[in-house]
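Entry 14. Ran structure prediction on the chain below.
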Amino acid sequence: MRIALRGVVKRFGAVTAVDGATLDITDGELFTLLGPSGCGKTTLLRLVAGFYRPPDAGEIRFGERRVDALPPYERNIGMVFQNYALWPHMTVRANIAYGLRLRKLGAAEIAERVERGLRQVNLRGLEDRYPGQLSGGQQQRVALARALVLNPDILLLDEPLSNLDAKIREQVREEIRLLQQALRITTIYVTHDQEEALSLSDRVAVMRDGRIQQVAAPKALYERPANRFVAEFVGTNNFLPGVCRERDEHGAVVETALGLVRGRPGDGVVVGERCLVAVRPENVTLGAPADNLFDGRVAFVSYLGNALRYEVEMSTGVVLKVDVGDAWHHETLAIGRAVRVGFAATVALTLRDE
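Output, structure tokens:
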């Protein structure tokens, strides 16, 4: 089922929670709304679900049908909430069957759908337990099964993994993605966790203050953020402010506190105007030849597990983060040691200074 939003606005008093959201979500896509708390992502999801209706402006369509004034039960959606919303006095089986009973389906069909739902989320054998007898990950599977047995056209998930610990969160995340791909159900997923968004999604919309900042596939979002907010929110970046001195389709030269820096030309960067150079720590090297080279001293070292992060301070006071990926074979440099850091022009993105 395709979803289209056109200029959707939602206000709560003087606060505009969603400000002119326009999106096209394709059939079978897992589409993520990503952003910090209060950015409007859950409000937008609830507008799609029909919990807030109609929006103050704009329209929402499922396929060719306009739905923004319809109640949730007429939209054929499945919803998974952050807090699971399970009935504590009901068994797993009864929780999964709850929505089917509200639809007044026959006992045989309810039993068949519940059994299929239990299989889909790997809960067979636990159907007679109560939510209080389940782990957080198992409770989340019950909530997912309850949504799926309704055979929804669209699945909506509101921060479904935020209450789980890291290891279980990763496991359930993979299960959700595999199940969504197998069922090819159009899914909107809300999260503030960038790793979740990048690993799960076909595409991601980054939101800030009710507005959509960028919509892109995870790789494009990470490698070509549209502005500083996206570059800061998705992953870690070094930012070098400066003035663009040269720019063409092949590259840009920016005058910074470190001197001239060569990078990729970003959208909207104009010669003579202020801009930023963004380069990720994993793309900065120690002691290797590069298009951009600078001398500094190690100011701080932190072990991240999959990398060793150095903070290298230049004589101008500018600090660059440098990630060494092969920390196992790397001899840690002492604080105060003189080093040369560098990065290629192809990994340094120039952005408008907004």
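The radius of gyration is 24 Å. Will compare against last week's run tomorrow.
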